[in-house]
Known about the structure:
- Helices cover about 55% and strands about 5% of the residues.
- It is built from 16 helices and three strands.
- Strands 1-2-3 form a three-stranded antiparallel β-sheet.
- The two termini are about 40 Å apart.
- The structure holds coenzyme A.
- Coenzyme A binds near residues 262 and 266.
Amino acid sequence: xxxxxxNGLPQISKGLEGVYVTxxxxxxxxxxxxxxxxxxxxIESLSENSNFEEVVYLLINGSLPSKPQLxxxxxxxxxxxxxxxxxxxxxxxxxxxxxxxxxxxxxxSALSSYDKEVSDTSPAANMNKSLRIxxxxxxxxxxxxxxxxxxxxxxxxxxxxxxxxxxxxxxxxRPSAEQADIMRNMFILHAEHSTNAxxxxxxxxxxxxxxxxxxxxxxxxxxxxxxHGGADEAALRMMREIGDPENTExxxxxxxxxxxxxxxxxxxxxxAYDPRAKIIKKYLVKYQNGQFDELRKLASIALRAxxxxxxxxxxxxxxxxxxxxxxxxVYLAAGIPPELFTPIFATSRSAxxxxxxxxxxxxxxxxxxxxxxxxxIDLEYIPIExxx
Length: 388
Ligand SMILES: CC(C)(COP(=O)(O)OP(=O)(O)OC[C@H]1O[C@@H](n2cnc3c(N)ncnc32)[C@H](O)[C@@H]1OP(=O)(O)O)[C@@H](O)C(=O)NCCC(=O)NCCS
């Protein structure tokens, strides 16, 4: 029974702001102090010491793996990288037509038809399917990158780790140590962020006991929007529009005067500097004085914009850089084209989505919120020929 307030209306929390919908021990976002923990480990320590395979294990299983456990999950993530021919055809057909995020959503959805365990809802089958999805999403994104730039599909190389293989399948050559390090970090930093919009979307779909492919497809759909995962690409677009570092302040000032949001700033939970943005910024600072003209310019624009935004809206409004602001130029430095930024975010986040889904199914409850009806009732039905 819902309690109504003194005015006879229920308390409505738009966007579910401030509402707890579930509990979990997967990650903790401390928005006031700008801290993030995966299963109790700070994001800084994982970024410094870990790799993506280990983070997948940690998120899904709840603790760091032993050496044999790490070897096992590494082998599972590597053995599952192949894509069925039908999926490669779908990706090729759609490349150049839809955005890579749309292609990823469609390909992950289609993958369910190739998985013999799709309807097996046992925890073991759900775990197998999760690892297949996490593994194959990186191949889908790499294949999309190949086809979009008019190149042929490259089959996975099982001798490489998850991140190196992704870069190899995308670029056709083994990555440099710096590229691999950037992407190792990007995959770790984006892997999980508690029950945000896309994780919630995943859980809502899964709570109906739809299969995990449906749940992850829902997560991808929710992540696409520029208010969520799409902000990294949008932030880079803005930096390119600014063009010359000297234009940064006037551009931002006039955007704010026009009540426009600056992509890559602000967060529903963080009212302090996003700790992931701090880690990504460390790479960007190096490019300020680097050799590549575009990167040098973008780094300078990003750092000037960051300063101005913090001066204007940081402490006063709690609007700080988020994970997406510095990501664009850093991805470019690793050889990633802008249209793949959000699909890579989704690929990495599939680890968190799967961890939450497997956890939620242990004690599943269908999501069914209420809506306060504000329309009429018992209207008289008027035949169409008599309507005004
Ligand atoms: C992420 C986001 C949706 C969270 O916001 P929210 O909790 O829903 O809060 P709102 O969008 O209602 O914003 C609250 C106020 O802050 C302002 N604000 C929020 N983000 C802003 C930004 N990036 N630039 C300028 N102003 C911003 C809003 O204009 C609003 O101002 P008002 O009260 O004067 O109307 C929002 O900060 C945003 O749109 N950021 C840009 C997109 C982005 O980077 N998304 C990635 C998040 S990881």
